[in-house]
Structure formats: structure tokens, C-alpha cells
Design goal:
The mean pLDDT is 91. Strand 3 and strand 4 form a beta hairpin. Strands 1-4-3-2 form a 4-stranded mixed β-sheet. It is α+β, with helices and mostly antiparallel strands.
Length: 87
């Protein structure tokens, strides 16, 4: 079983803030779950990985965008910024 997972960095309140658009936050979390599954399939033994991690990337969704950092050796995706479009 994969030990891959994700979290907000440094924490959910810092990354999400006080956005009233909770449906967008749910979209972000669903997409991050997909990214975790993809990373687990791509990096089968992340702890032993010796290459460079992909770094910070962004995803654009229908309600906004978010930035995330993939750290392969930690087997984690860190969501670092969530930007909802104005309602």
C-alpha cells in the first residue's frame, strides 16, 4: 500500500483563508487526491527516490486555481496556495 498523502502547508487556515467558496475548496481537495494517486503510480518507491522532485506546480480549475509542491522523498503533496475566483 502507498504511503503517499497530502496536506496544507503550513495549515489549512493559512492556505485557504476565510474563503466563502467551500465548493471550490472541495474541488481542490478532490483534484489533490487525484494528484496523490498519480504520484503514487509514477513514483512507486518514493522514499528511495534520488532524482529531483517536480517542484511547485499549479492547477487551474473552474472556480480558481491552486499551487502545490510535490516532495517525492516525503511521499507528500503540499498544497501551498488556493486562489478562488471572485464569486
Amino acid at each position: 500500500m502507498s504511503d503517499w498523502g497530502w496536506e496544507y502547508d503550513p495549515d489549512a487556515h493559512h492556505v485557504i483563508g476565510d474563503t466563502p467558496n467551500l465548493s471550490f475548496v472541495a474541488q481542490v481537495e478532490e483534484r489533490v487526491e487525484e494528484l496523490v494517486r498519480a504520484a503514487a503510480a509514477l513514483y512507486l518507491n518514493g522514499c528511495a527516490f534520488e532524482g529531483r522532485s517536480p517542484g511547485v506546480q499549479e492547477e487551474v480549475l473552474s472556480g480558481g486555481m491552486f499551487h502545490y509542491l510535490t516532495v517525492v522523498r516525503n511521499q507528500r503533496i503540499y498544497v501551498v496556495k488556493v486562489i478562488p475566483w471572485p464569486l
